[in-house]
Design brief:
Helix content: 40-55%
Cofactor: FAD
Keywords: FAD, Flavoprotein, Nucleotide-binding, Oxidoreductase, Proline metabolism
Enzyme class: oxidoreductase
Organism: Paenibacillus xanthanilyticus
Largest sheet: 8 strands, parallel, barrel
EC number: 1.5.5.2
Strand content: 5-15%
Distance between the termini: 25 Å
């Protein structure tokens, strides 16, 4: 049953008509638990609350189904405005983005223009931008673009997914760049030809890449709600004397609040991934696919 539900929500995440319908009706049925709101003001309000509790943030203006240059430019403009708002509010937050929302599927050159504009603006504020990794079809081109951007910018990082067979080698290859990586398990449905189909294998590989990247001496953003993985990371940093300023834990907005606060109280840096915008449906469906408990939360809200 869990597999059926996961596949259903992942399929819905890519459904354009469902996305358009969701935009029309706004954040309902529990989506507001995982999405800060539809405007920049909503997102900055959320950042202020999180900062007040000792947590830092990465903001993401949600965008999917970008098919025209105009749509890509609008998405890039929202990224720039988000960076402006972070600076003007004086909050502690950086920016996450998906390159498909900046036109990667339309034109590599368009995406690169938008990326350079965003990274230049972020650099002027002393801020940092994280490139989210998307599905396997975009993996190699995303890494290639990241390498090219690193020739010009040092304020950019990328995400690496533990469920892909190639990931350990990717981390080894990126070591020469001293890459700042967010390590995740992975949230897309992929073929067993390219990704571990079994959860136990994904977990084992996640441990492998946490250890690998930390021992490489490069900054690690360990993004997980799995307490066993968090405990494993704690053991590695203690064993090898890795200082707390060389890594952080990252979690999603609205999930495991108590755990986030516990880690802050223990002296660890915790960054919360805070999405906002009216194009929230695909993101919300992937969150439901990840954890069945999220589905029951939504069902309860529907009956309310």
């Amino acid at each position: 049953m869990e597999t059926v539900m996961r596949n259903m929500f992942l399929k819905l995440a890519k459904n354009r008509p469902a996305n358009k319908l969701a935009k029309r009706y706004g954040l309902r049925f529990g989506a507001q638990r995982f999405v800060a709101g539809e405007t920049i003001k909503h997102s900055i309000d959320a950042v202020k609350q999180l900062n007040a509790s000792g947590r830092v943030v990465t903001l993401d203006h949600l965008g999917e189904f970008v098919f025209t240059e105009e749509e890509a430019k609008e998405s890039a403009t929202m990224c720039l405005l988000t960076l402006d708002a972070i600076h003007q509010a004086g909050v502690t937050a950086n920016l996450s983005l998906k390159m498909t929302s900046l036109g990667l599927d339309i034109s590599r050159e368009l995406c690169m223009r938008n990326m350079r504009d965003i990274l230049t603006r972020a650099r002027s504020y002393g801020n940092f931008v994280r490139i989210d990794m998307e599905d396997y079809a975009h993996c190699q081109m995303s890494l290639d673009i990241y390498r090219e951007l690193r020739q010009e910018f040092d304020n950019v990082g990328i995400v690496i997914q533990a469920y892909l067979y190639r990931t350990e080698q990717d981390i080894a290859d990126l070591n020469e760049l001293k890459a700042n990586l967010r390590l995740v398990k992975g949230a897309y449905k992929e073929s067993p030809k390219v990704a571990f189909p079994e959860k136990a294998d994904v977990d084992n590989n996640f441990k492998t890449i946490i250890r690998q990247h930390l021992l490489n001496g490069n900054y690690a953003a360990i993004a997980t709600h799995d307490e066993a993985m968090i405990q494993y990371a704690k053991e590695i940093v203690r064993e090898y004397g890795i200082p707390n300023d060389r890594f952080e834990f990252q979690m999603l907005y609205g999930i495991c609040e108590d755990l986030q606060k516990k880690l802050v109280a223990e002296g660890y840096k915790v960054r919360v991934y805070v999405p906002y915008g009216n194009d929230w449906f695909g993101y919300f469906m992937r969150r439901l696919a990840e954890r069945p408990a999220n589905v029951w939360f939504v069902l309860k809200n529907m009956f309310k």
